[in-house]
Amino acid sequence: MSDITSFKQLGLSKWLLDSLRAMKITQPTTIQSHCIPEILKGRDCIGGAKTGSGKTITFAAPMLARWSEDPCGMFGVVLTPTRELAMQIAEQFTALGSSMNIRVALIVGGESIVNQAIELQRKPHFIIATPGRLAHHILNSGEDTVGGLKRAKYLVLDEADFLLNDTFAKDLSTCIGALPDKNARQTLLFTATITDQVRALQNAPAKGGKLPIFAYQVESVDKVAIPSTLKVEYILIPEHVKEAYLYQLLTCENYINSNVIIFVNRTATAEVLRKTLKHLDLRVASLHSQMSQQERTNSLHRFRANAARILIATDVASRGLDIPTVELVVNYDIPSDPDTYIHRSGRTARAGKSGDAISFITPRDVSRIAAIEERINKKMTECDKVHDTAVIRKALVKVTKAKRESLMEMEKENFGERRKIQRRKNMMNDKSLRS
Ligand SMILES: Nc1ncnc2c1ncn2[C@@H]1O[C@H](COP(=O)(O)OP(=O)(O)OP(=O)(O)O)[C@@H](O)[C@H]1O
User: Fold this and answer.
1) The ligand 1 atom nearest the CA atom of 159
2) What is the pLDDT of residue 419?
3) Which stretches make up the Helicase ATP-binding domain (predicted)?
4) Which of 32, 53, 198, 330 is spaced 20 to 30 A from 409 at the CA atom?
5) Binding site membership of 30 for ligand 1 (Cβ less than 6 Å)
6) Which of 16, 21, 56 to mutate for ligand 1's pocket (most ligand atoms within 8 Å of CB)?
């Protein structure tokens, strides 16, 4: 928490203070007290703060404050890399602005293009979008649908470091090209992991082929990469017994009732694990890019509602998702990029709560762990919650049987072929698989 004690002192209007209070949000976090007054002054902003530190309200509250003074259509555009994150941000805008009849449009891949076009024609006040789908509308729809973008006052890039990588470059340019010039709008960039690419925009915003993003900006960046309430641990494991250790961990005294997210590097691993844990009677759901959007949304609903207590996910879920009940994140596979570790682990220990991140380390992962520890500036400690080898050996028999059954089912269901078909569908649906 910060030295400024109330949102009122930051300059927010009464109706917003009431909305925040209804969400039990009364004291601004550090990033909120640094950035909200600057954004209200009309400045562009780079906001870098730890996962779970309230960056969404940092940009949403001042935009809503300015919008309420003149509530016109297509006031602000928020771009974010994943569909689920866009949905979550749209929900926050809707909740904050509900007393003011706010219109928020969610423009993401995997949903009906026609319905979205109709929604855009109604001139929503805020558009929360993934870049691929918004670019599609800009390139294929007329003035009556996307013309209003030319009058938008704000552009937000949430998870900015990720949006600025090459995958999104073309779509991002299309989106920015449809908005007013950088001097005629405010640009706000937020992420938990500021990269050189984000910083470079600050130093040479309009040169060297860089996106002409900033007019006049302020920077507020945390020096520490992970929340202080996050405990980071590891378990050293031979590759072939990873599933048995996972089962043991999920059913140990500490976590038997916990909400857990398990991150894996491949969709096939997510599917095998989901089936295996289901055979072992655990309430489990999965989230990855080879699922249809309907399946993705259902899984996330089940997890949020605690119908599933375990979510197995690839990195489509590593950024931004805010599920306050998550107590444990397991890095079942170690990511190659240390920043990905920060985002994954940040799905727990949010908003001052405590949480654990446990990494499964095989001999192959040692150099990745060293890079992660250097990036977060902290050594992981050894997890002592699963250590009895006799118990693990006993679990191994049961878990191996469940895994064998799962693999046979996947072969019967032709998972590999379905994956190819889904990938093709995704590509046709949306130019970016990640959008
Ligand atoms: N001032 C506050 N006091 C208490 N809770 C807050 C405050 N601001 C935001 N929150 C809550 O903290 C949680 C995390 O916020 P948010 O999702 O915006 O984090 P973030 O910084 O964007 O994280 P990430 O980097 O993972 O995307 C949310 O549940 C939000 O409602």
Assistant:
1) 27
2) 65
3) 36-212
4) 330
5) no
6) 56
pLDDT greater than 70 at residue 215: no
Beta bridge partners of 359: 234, 331
Per DSSP, the three-state class of 332 is coil
Total-model pTM: 0.91
Q: For residue 205, what pLDDT is reported?
A: 45
Q: Per residue in 271-307, pLDDT tens? A: 999 999 999 999 999 999 989 889 999 999 999 999 9
Whether 230-418 and 8-217 are alike in CATH topology: the answer is yes
| Cβ contact 92:60 at 8 Å | yes
Q: Is 95 helix (H, G, I), strand (E, B) or coil?
A: helix
d(CA 356, CA 326): 9
Q: Is residue 211's pLDDT more than 60? A: no
Ligand 1, pocket-test mutation among 7, 32, 57, most atoms within 8 A of CB: 57
Amino acid (one-letter) located at 114: V
Q: Does residue 279's CB lie within 6 angstroms of at least one atom of ligand 1?
A: no
In angstroms, what is the span from residue 19 Cα to ligand 1's centroid?
Answer: 15
**Interval between CA 350 and ligand 1 midpoint (Å):** 7
Q: 48 CB less than 6 Å from ligand 1?
A: no
* Residues 351-355, mean pLDDT to the nearest whole number: 96
Higher pLDDT, 276 or 216: 276
Query: Which CATH number describes the domain made up of 230-418?
Result: 3.40.50.300
Q: Nearest to residue 239, comparing CAs of 357, 337, 364? A: 364
> Can you identify the CATH homologous superfamily of domain 8-217?
P-loop containing nucleotide triphosphate hydrolases (3.40.50.300)
Domain boundaries, the chain: 8-217, 230-418
CA 402 to centroid of ligand 1, rounded, Å: 38
pLDDT-above-90 percentage for the chain: 77
- Greatest C-alpha distance within the chain: 68
